[in-house]
Amino acid sequence: MIKTSEHAPKGIIKFVLSLVISLTIFLWSLDLMTETFQIIGNDTVIRLLDIISNPFVSLFIGIFITAVIQSSSTSTSLIVAIVASGSLPLQNAVPMVMGANIGTTLTSTIVSLSYITNNKEFKNAIATGVMHDFFNILTVTILFPLEWNYHILTELSQDITHFVGFKNKTATDVAVTHSGLFDYINSYLIGITSFKPLLILLSTASLFGSIKIMSKTISNRMIGTMREKFESVFFKNNFNAFSLGAILTAVIQSSSISTTVIVPLGATGKIKLEKIFPYIVGANIGTTITALIAAVNKSEAAMNIALVHFLFNLIGTVIFLLTPGIKKIPVIYAQKFGSMTMRYKIIGFFYILVVFFILPLSLIFLGKL
Questions:
Q1: Rounded distance, CA 124 to CA 276, Å?
Q2: Per-residue confidence at 40, pLDDT binned at 50, 70, 90?
Q3: What is the count of structural domains for the chain?
Q4: CB neighbours (10 Å) of residue 119?
Q5: Residue 129 in contact with residue 108, Cβ under 8 Å?
Q6: Contact status, residue 302 vs residue 78, Cβ threshold 8 Å
Q7: Three-state SS across the chain?
Q8: What residues form the membrane-spanning segments (predicted)?
């Protein structure tokens, strides 16, 4: 008992230090990225805009990038930083955010393939994994045409920022008013680096690493203590499941982790798909907190794109969790896909390759022609 009490303060100190350091790196990398994009120049920006001016290409860039780095928190934070720098118009960034929501579902789908040796568990695992995919794909199917034709997410986010009185900052204002804590470091790095894209790589790697550290630090501390309570307490009703998904994901900053930990419980049948679905929808809401944090003290456009991420998931929640009749569609399709994949296992691998890699890369390549 004495050893436990002696080690507890050390564990808490280590936990707090890890969070403080990772959050500091996260904020610094966003500042560096924003400044670097402003310095890189118009030629690079024009080439970037030529590629993503097509909303379909922008959508699939979001899918592919997020599938590769396996973190919608990282990819949406990147998008916020680019929008904040003034290099990327808000309307061009919206499809990328939609794509990021699809790309982040790859992890749980891959994890579900590990149950391939047990037919019953494999069926349930696949259904649990792809339910997240189908929810986001169906939400994109509904909202992408509406955004393309009527810009509903863009205009709604702008209305909200104006309503709450968010200060309208230009990209130049952001460069001048960002946190003084990072001024010296950024100025020094920009001054000694002749090839500025290296700073983009540095800030991206730092952003990705900081989010991973936060995710691992918090998930190891939280998920381990809650695992036994998942079934009896957190999935007692839809509200509990939704709240757990939202809060857990907001805290650990990774929907990839929070949705992956539920796959084993779905595979063994301990928790039914109908009870898991609200948890997954909640996780989608929780993951939007990262972009909102990243947008603080940035331009109005940066806050707008962060709100787009939130609104996209909120509208999807209203449609597929609260609307009678419609709310069962992702669960039903996931169950049918699980049954089909159990009979023809190659379908699971083919699905991952096509949706997350072959189709996005093909459209991105065609968009460059």
A1: 12
A2: low
A3: 1
A4: 12
A5: yes
A6: no
A7: CHHHHHHHHHHHHHHHHHHHHHHHHHHHHHHHHHHHHHHHCHHHHHHHHHHHCCHHHHHHHHHHHHHHHCCHHHHHHHHHHHHHCCCCCHHHHHHHHHHHHHHCCHHHHHHHHHHCCCHHHHHHHHHHHHHHHHHHHHHHHHHHHHHHHHCHHHHHHHHHHHHCCCCCCCHHHHHHHCCHHHHHHHHHHHHHCCCCHHHHHHHHHHHHHHHHHHHHHHHHHHHHHHHHHHHHHHCCCHHHHHHHHHHHHHHHCCHHHHHHCCHHHHHCCCCCHHHHHHHHHHHHHHCCHHHHHHHCCCCHHHHHHHHHHHHHHHHHHHHHHCCCCHHHHHHHHHHHHHHHHHHCCHHHHHHHHHHHHHHHHHHHHHHHC
A8: 12-30, 51-73, 93-113, 125-146, 188-211, 276-296, 302-323, 344-366
Tens digits of residue pLDDT in 241-291: 999 899 888 887 777 777 877 888 888 887 889 999 999 999 999 989 888
Instruction: In whole angstroms, give the CA distance from residue 284 to residue 349.
Output: 24
> What amino acid occupies position 220?
N
State residue 257's pLDDT score.
75
Q: Domain of residue 110: give its range.
A: 2-368
pTM score, two decimals? Answer: 0.79
What digits encode the pLDDT tens for the residues 94-141? Answer: 999 999 999 988 888 888 888 888 888 899 999 999 999 999 999 999
If we measure between CA atoms, which residue out of 95, 128, 133 comes closest to residue 112? Answer: 128
d(CA 91, CA 317): 22
Q: How many residues does the chain have?
A: 369
